[in-house]
Write a structure and sequence with these properties.
Elements lengths: L3 E11 L10 E2 L2 E2 L12 H10 L11 E12 L4 E5 L6 H9 L6 E6 L2 E2 L10 E4 L11 H12 L14 H11 L11 H16 L15 H14 L4 E5 L7 H18 L2 E6 L2 H7 L2 E6 L2 E6 L1 H6 L4 H6 L6 E8 L3 E4 L2 E4 L5 H5 L5 E6 L4 E4 L6 E10 L4 E9 L5 E9 L10 E6 L5 E4 L8
Parallel strand pairs: 5-10, 5-11, 8-9, 9-10
Antiparallel strand pairs: 1-4, 1-6, 2-3, 6-7, 11-12, 13-14, 13-16, 14-15, 16-22, 17-21, 18-19, 18-21, 19-20
Helix pairs in contact: 3-5, 3-6, 5-6
The chain binds adenosine-5'-diphosphate and magnesium ion.
Adenosine-5'-diphosphate binds next to α1, β4 and α2.
Length: about 450
């Protein structure tokens, strides 16, 4: 077990203009040459990333595209850390850097007390599970689980009594008899250990009954469990998982989500789990790192992220349906005004609001913190556009019509009790729970706290 420390990580890729070039400099970080052929197939999205990057800071150069910038993150020993963010924000790249499948442009990665920057993947003692299961199609489940062990495992002398035959001879006997029925195979000391390890893992993942099947005889969920098992069998210091559930259907995803969390608890292996799905992040992570455009936006425990988002991006990304945002004007000491409503905030906002007197800011309120009320100046008049009754709760899409801005319409989402009847076209007054509001600075997007 080990903690993982990411220190000031930068990653740039050579620009997709014909040949890969490596002569650029990006803010003093040298650009590493990559072998041609390792370049992402999606040239358009590379360009888009370049545009999204802050021109003030590390933009990359004409020869390179900056994909990760200034990543600082410590994953504690035994922790389940989720990296979440929209597609293209650099999550997979970060995992691949940790695994050693990509070279760093700048920064340091340590696993335990070892700096692993320059170690090849095999020497890092890290196992990775990908979205595509990548099982060997011609091997049984047993062989798939054992394969990684045979390749990467060196037997600890204390674990097994080595035979007095030379190792090459042991291996030869093993591979010559491998396709025979179990009883007729040659079992070297190493093979016995591997066998024990494979069986333990299969039992933990409840795939014992599948052990003699080929991957094509398994369902998606079963394949993914075998892939997990293959990573587990190696008993690495760190698991890296890149969207391992995204090929599963919704029900299986929920189920497997629970299994992965339970297994991780049982094994206590430091885990970094990548997903674009905020529900997965919220339900699985001990802590969550929210990423956007190559940078970490906030690192916190799930409910802290939800209740105290550091900026507008996190506020919008975490939570489903997302938080509503309404432009308002501040009138000190405690009033916020919108053409359609005016709200007096609780006293603890006073000091902060004074700094914004007369300015425009953004009010954020989650769908569950709006409720249907009576006509009043502090309430928001809206028209119901759509009703989604889920049984346990009902979501309304409503619109707030802003009269002074040429009838501009602001859509809002509201969660209400399922037993209140609501019709499309109905006009309602929404009450804001004043102790649940969030305020954001319009120029920086940061939460006003
Ligand atoms: N080998 C590569 N060469 C050039 N650009 C790449 C390469 N790999 C990834 N990228 C770009 O880096 C950005 C981040 O990609 P990725 O880490 O796969 O994002 P995520 O996993 O968050 O969806 C994307 O814009 C992608 O196109
Ligand atoms: Mg990815």
């Amino acid at each position: 077990m080990a903690q993982v420390v990411l220190e000031n990580i930068y990653k740039s890729f050579p620009h997709r203009t014909g040949k890969a070039s490596s002569s650029g400099q990006s803010s003093g970080h040298s650009i590493q040459k990559r072998s041609a052929g390792g370049i992402a197939p999606n040239a358009a999205s590379v360009g888009a990333t370049a545009l999204a990057i802050d021109p003030e800071t590390e933009t990359g150069t004409a020869q390179s595209v900056s994909v990760l910038r200034r990543i600082n993150l410590t994953i504690h020993d035994g922790e389940f850390m989720v990296l979440v963010g929209p597609s293209g924000c650099g999550k997979s790249t970060l995992l691949r850097l940790i695994a050693g499948l990509e070279a760093l442009t700048g920064g340091n990665i340590s696993v335990g007390d070892r700096l692993v920057n320059d170690l090849p993947p095999k020497a890092r003692d890290i196992a990775m599970v990908f979205q595509s299961y990548a099982l060997y199609p011609h091997m049984t489940v047993y062989e798939n689980l054992a394969f990684g062990l045979r390749r990467t495992w060196t037997i600890d002398e204390s674990e097994a009594k080595p035979s007095n035959r030379p190792e090459w001879m042991e291996r030869l006997f093993v591979s010559a008899t491998r396709s025979l029925p179990r009883g007729l195979r040659y079992w070297s000391a190493e093979e016995k250990l591997i066998d024990r390890r494979v069986k333990t893992v299969a039992q933990m993942l409840q795939i014992e009954s599948l052990i003699d099947r080929l991957p094509k005889q398994l369902s998606g969920g079963q394949k993914q469990r075998v892939a997990l098992g293959r990573a587990m069998a190696r008993n690495p210091q760190v698991f890296l998982m890149d969207e391992p559930l995204s090929n599963l259907d919704a029900k299986l995803r929920t189920e497997t989500r629970g299994q992965i969390v339970n297994l991780q608890r049982k094994l206590g292996t430091t885990t970094i789990y990548v997903t674009h799905d905020q529900t997965e992040a919220m339900t699985m992570g001990d802590r969550i790192a929210v990423m956007n455009a190559g940078q970490i936006q906030q690192v916190a425990r799930p409910l802290d992220l939800y209740n105290r988002p550091a900026n507008r991006f996190v506020a919008e990304f975490i939570g489903s349906p997302p938080m509503n945002f309404i432009p308002v004007q501040v009138k000190a000491p405690l009033l916020i005004q919108h053409p359609q409503f005016r709200l007096t905030l609780p006293h603890d906002w006073e000091a902060r609001l004074r700094l914004y007197d007369g300015r425009s800011i953004t009010l954020g309120i989650r769908p569950e913190h709006l409720s249907v009320g009576l006509p009043a100046p502090k309430n928001i008049p809206v028209r119901v556009e759509r009703v989604e009754a889920l049984g346990s709760e009902t979501y309304l899409s409503v619109s707030l019509v802003t009269p002074d801005r040429s009838g501009e319409i602001l859509p809002l989402q509201v969660r209400i009790e399922p037993d209140r009847p609501v019709f499309v076209g109905e006009e309602l007054w929404l009450t804001i729970a004043p102790d649940k509001i969030h305020l954001f600075d319009d120029s920086t997007g940061r939460a006003i706290v």
